[in-house]
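seq as requested:
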Amino acid sequence: MAEERKESLNFIEQIIEEDIKSGRNNGKILTRFPPEPNGYLHIGHAKAICINFETALKYGGSTNLRFDDTNPTTEDTEYVESIQEDIRWLGFVWKGEPLYASDYFGQLYDFAVKLIKKGLAYVDDSTPEEIANMKGTPSEPGKDSPYKSRSVDENLELFERMKNGEFEDGSRVLRANVNMASPNMLMRDPIIYRIKKEHHHRTGDVWCIYPMYDFAHGQSDSIEGITHSLCSLEFIHHRPLYDWFIEKLEIFPSRQKEFARMNVEYMITSKRKLLKLVNDGLVNGWDDPRMPTISGMRRRGYPAQAIRVFCDKAGVAKRENTIEINLLEACVREELNKTAIRAMVVLDPVKVIITNYPEDKTEDLTADNNPEDPNAGNRVLTFGRELYIEREDFMENAPPKYFRMTTGADVRLKNAYILHCTGVDKDAEDNIQTIYATYYADSKSGEDVSGIKPKGTLHWVSATDALSCEIRMYDRLFTVPDPTFDENIDFLEFYNNESLKILNHAKMESSLKNSMPGTQYQFLRQGYFCTDADSTPGHIVFNRTVGLKESFSKEVRK
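struct tokens:
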């Protein structure tokens, strides 16, 4: 008998299994997801969430949610709330209550004082420009600040006065005393505290000095006893400083490991650039369905499970790469095919009159809600003399292998009858206004004894029963896969002006009249759609989620 193959582990899981085997932290696993509350979460954060939560769950551990709220200028409770909503929607539960770096401001201040007392931190009066110039270059060592030689007592006094608000913003900083000749620029006496007289969303006006991210982040991990600090690859050069603080402060040695961040074609993950899209009115807020934010993807109709599967398929890598957007869309299709309710909506309607169907007659026809789900049930469709079909589903003078509606040919209506097209009415500009057809009374779907075998099947809605709705057709937000490929070109040069088209004359089957926001559908032959939050009674709005198959070219230049 062949030996059973062992599950393939990613490099983070290999590290954790080695730690468990060696008895590190007594086998305890505690990870954390530490967002800054200065924007909405995006697809890159989705990957970080999945890695941190799923890795901990796999090994019987748990995950903290900690907001690294050390910059009061950019932070807001709106972002705090949206981040929590996004994590819950993805299906994860953090340990206990949400935590905040601001919970530890007192301890972080004490850590800074400890460094000063050890001669490992000093107050610097230099301007930001002077500090930047002293840093040197990657090929040239930096220069010591003239304030580096201050005594411990002087530094303690000045730092306390900074805390007490005696100095103006930007007039002084506290720097770690590391090594201005280090080949790692981040180790050249980094700033660890700055004066910022701003109101904080949680601590109010208690503090007027705030720790820098590099100081607060690692020490917060240590305070919480995080065993594995899993972060994206951009933090790999920060790790030596992270470890330096742990060593000098003699605190819990949280272990940092880095993975490649999520880069997806046609999406950007820079909060600054995303904020510009919002502020310039190029999108309708952070949750615009074109945005790569989790809230935007949720509003567009992407299922949470599809995003989790996508993150899993993208894998956990050590090197930066770009994932094709087709993989994300394929994951969305696969999930929605199993779960989405089927419905018929005509986007660009043209009327069909069945001349041999009685004028005063209607009948109820049955349609499956989802043939992939045996428990999905069915719905009732009203059929009558007058219908709507898609304008593009008719061609008056069609080529031989045209399988939709054309004069003199037969075509089936989904869940209904076979029609034979007999003619059309046109307006003065030669536009088709009405299509005329006859039906075969013995060709009813499920009861067909007509013997006629049309090759095409069309979706339709009843003209007397259908309701109007608004359809928002979304395309990719940018015209090239990587809008930031050249830092000398403004990424907005590649903004897709055709990324949103609104259809106001669509007709939907009446079963959708009470559709609730967030409900996901497969509109037959059209794609997957989701009811938008803008919907109101009497005015239903649908967002196009994704097509039934890949429908975009690899690159669409202006």
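The radius of gyration is 31 Å.
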